[in-house]
Amino acid sequence: QVQLVESGGGLVQAGGSLRLSCAASGRTFSYYTMGWFRQGSGKEREFVAAISWHLGEEEYAGSVKGRFTVSRDNAKNTVYLQMNSLKPEDADVYYCAARYRSMSTSPSDYAYWGQGTQVTVSS
User: Fold this and answer.
1) CB 79 within 8 A of CB 50
2) Cα(67)–Cα(29) distance, rounded to whole angstroms?
């Protein structure tokens, strides 16, 4: 099993940047694909970015590609989401998630979830 704790959310003006962190504990971190998802009020949880367990392959939602970067530090059991050029429509609760091995962009494929961190973007 894996336990996940997100941090780094907050308030930023449009065009600004934030870096989210997700600290993991439990089974060997390097065997898990790590994903970032976001969810606003009245919306379904949607994929943002993920990084695989094997080759470090990165996947991004089209709406964030070129602005967000996902990375991982296996020695620290931590995954990051660097968010640049933030837009008001990026404001949501952001969740990190983990699944064993295979890359996926579907939230239903992820077995372990953090509690979320709020990102607010002012216009």
Assistant:
1) no
2) 26
The pLDDT tens digits for 31-55 are 899 999 999 888 999 999 999 987 7
Smallest Cα–Cα separation from 96: which of 11, 42, 1, 24?
Answer: 24
The amino acid present at 117, given as its one-letter code, is: T
By the 8 A CB rule, do 120 and 40 touch? no
pLDDT tens digits, 53-70: 877 899 999 999 999 999
Report the distance separating Cα 18 and Cα 100, nearest Å.
27
Q: Which residue has the tokens 């367990």?
A: 53
pLDDT in tens, 94-111: 999 999 989 999 999 999
